[in-house]
Each structure stands twice: as C-alpha cells, then as structure tokens.
Amino acid sequence: MDLTPSDEQRLLRESADRFINETYTSKLREQNAKEPLGFSQAIWKQFAELGWLALPIAEEHGGIGGGAIEVGILMEAFGRGLVSEPYLSTVVLGAGLVAAHGRDDQKAALLPQVAEGTLRLAFAHAERAARANLSRVDTTARKDGDNYVLDGAKVAVLDGAAADQLIVSARLANNGSGSLRLFMVPRDAPGLALADYPRLGGGRACNLTLQGVRVPADALLGDDGDAYPAIEAVVDRALAAMSAEAVGMMQTLTDKTLDYTKVRKQFGKPLAANQVIRHRLTDMSVQVDEARSMALRAALKADADAAERGRAASGAKAKIGKGARFVAEQSVQLHGGMGVTEELDVGAYFKRLLAFETLFGGSTHHYRRHAALSGRPV
SS3 of 62, please? Predict the structure, then answer.
C-alpha cells in the first residue's frame, strides 16, 4: 500500500500548519475560553473560507469530496493548536450523519449550509445509563398524528449550545421493532431544556432534557429505517478524527518537553543530558509514532465493512488513549512545577488528552469492542 501523501494532501497539511502557527496562538485560546459559545465565530468563518468545513462533504452538495485521511490531516493540526471550534460536532458528526442517513432533499438542503459555515449541527446521542454503549437509547419518539413527540435526556452533547439544529437519537415507542431514529430538532424547540458547561481542556458541551418536544414528521432524518448502522459508522469516523487530533497534541507535548529539557539545567547540566530523561523522551516519541500509525489505519479503514472499520477505530481509540495519558503525564512531570501552572500551556494539552480518553468510551471499552469484533471472548 502506497501511503505517500498526494499533492493535495501535502498542501492541506501545509496550509493547516501555517494557520495554526500564525493565527491560533495561546492568546486566541484564552479569548475563546471567555466566549459564550467557547469559540470564535470569526475563526469559524475563516474555516469556511479556507474550505475546511466543506472538506468531507460531497462535491454535489457544495463540498470538496475529501475523505477520512484529509480530515485526519486537518484534525492533527487542530490538535497541535488546541482548536476549540465545533468542527468534530458539526462537520464530522453532524454533516456525516446527514450524508450517511439523510434523504436526498435533506442532503441538498443542509450540507451546503454546513460547507458555507451558516449551519452548525450537534449530535445528541449519549445517555447517562448507556455509558459508552451506542445501542443503549432510552429517549423515545412517539408518533402523534403528523408529528413526533420526543421524551428523554441526553448528556455530553458536544457544542450543543452553539448548534442551530440538534440531531437527536430516539427509539420509536409505538413501533414493534423499537428501532432507532434520528430527528432534526431546533435548539430553541419548546420543551427542550439545555444545560451548557465548559469541557475539560477547552470547548463546551451540554446536557439536554426533552419533555414533550414536538417536531413535524419531516424532521425525521432519513427514511423510516433503523439509524443505528449509520450512527455506528459515523462515530467510527469521529474516532478516527479524534485519534488524529490526539496525535497532534501528543506530538506538541513531546516537542515542548524536549525543548524544555534542553534548556532547563540541574546540577549545572541540561536535563536532557541525563540518560534517564533521554529514555523517557524516547518512550514519549515511540508512543507518538505508534499513535500516528493507529490513527492512520483507522482513517484508511473508514470505508471498510462494519467489522473491519470498527476494529480499526476501536483499536486506535484504545491504544492512543493509553499512550496519550502516558505522554501527558511524562510531559507534566518533566516540566516540574512549571507543568501545572498557567504560565505554560502544557496543562491545557494534558487536560484535553484526558478528555479524549473518556469521549465515546475509554480504552477499556474499546479494547472489549475490538475483541468482540475480532471474535474473541471479552
């Protein structure tokens, strides 16, 4: 398999790295943390102008037609800059669900708006009792004439307060199969209560309560069929994108730690002159290289059959979750007391990597999923 990047992929990497280095400074991150939505709408507009919001969207719907590899290149750069804009929630998850499960008229209406930056989406699926089990959904949708009535609660909805439309998963209450459906729900719909909060390491999320939320029949995303296969496929794509983002953070922490140990002196010598310190830096670099390989494999398998795609996505999430924690902890320790102060941004990367470990299931969950998909006992 030839893994040499194409000219378009190299240009994307160069433009993303240049943008992060020149624009996405620590000062900008501090300003974003004070924004009500947790990100800069001006930066979001620049994402649209650069074509990044259109990257994975099909050309027929105003997009560029890129794949998981291109999204991974962009997400790795976002990881290096600790970007807090709702790219994962809107473009990877939201637009991904519309593209995978929506009707043709819904794709034509919604996807161009996402590409232009005029529509933000959020995926409301996780529930408290479900933990990381994607198939566990207790929120119900009841058919009532020409409407559906939604009741239930969702947790950890990424960038839900910033979304114009929420894609809410629910189980049909008056249907024999009780299969899953997806509904487009306006953020200000009557009966929808939203509790917004900051995420660890930047960005925001929210919990939702739905009490008698009434939506028209055409709010159903896609045809009247089970949405679970599309949900699983899009979440696997999100895991690949998140894995690439974690690689960017791990690489940045490793680089910062190497630079710091070269200038920080102890007993008259730089820390990097100590053989034990060099071994720890080498271990960090090994974890980064392994993580990059796993993230790339997850992206390459994004369009494979369900079992192969799931193994690659869960394998990446499990391995990188462990490696990310190791790199983050080593970086903080080797920076000493400075590593836990706000004077350096090491702590911010540390927090974001801890959040990565828990989002969409931790390493233990994904080791078990990988084993189950491989036919091994769990």
Answer: coil
Domain that holds residue 210: 123-224
pTM of this structure: 0.95
Structure tokens at 190: 């009557």
Burial class of 296 by CB neighbour count within 10 A (0 to 12, 13 to 18, 19+):
buried
* Residue 365's CATH number: 1.20.140.10
Length of the chain as a residue count: 378
DSSP state of 92: I
Report the number of distinct structural domains present in the chain: 3
Between strands 180-186 and 165-172, the pairing is: antiparallel
What's the maximum distance between 2 C-alpha atoms anywhere in the chain? 79
- What sign has the CA pseudo-torsion 260, 262, 264, 267? positive
Residue range 232-247, pLDDT digits in tens: 999 999 999 999 999 9
Q: Verify that 366 and 237 share a domain, yes or no.
A: yes
Task: Give the residues across from 140 on adjacent strands.
Answer: 151, 171
Residue 75, token pair as written in the block: 């997400």
3-state percent breakdown (helix, strand, coil) of the chain, nearest 5: 55, 15, 30
CA-based angle 126:132:138, to the nearest 5?
45
pLDDT value at residue 262: 84
Q: Are residues 82 and 154 in the same domain?
A: no
- The answer to whether residue 2 is domain-embedded is no
Contacts within 8 Å (CB) and 24+ apart, 126-132: 126/154, 126/155, 126/156, 126/157, 127/152, 127/153, 127/154, 127/155, 128/153, 128/155, 131/361, 131/365, 132/360, 132/361, 132/362, 132/365
User: Which letter does DSSP use for residue 2 in this model?
Assistant: -
Q: Which residues contact 371 (CB under 8 A, 6 or more apart)?
A: 377, 378
Q: Where a domain ends, among 191, 224, 257?
A: 224
The stretches in the chain having pLDDT less than 50 are none
Contact 74, 16 (CB under 8 A): yes
CATH code of the domain covering residue 19? 1.10.540.10
Q: Which of 115, 32, 14, 7 is nearest to 345 (CA)?
A: 32
Q: Are 168 and 154 in contact (CB under 8 A)?
A: yes
Lookup result for tokens 């869960």: 314
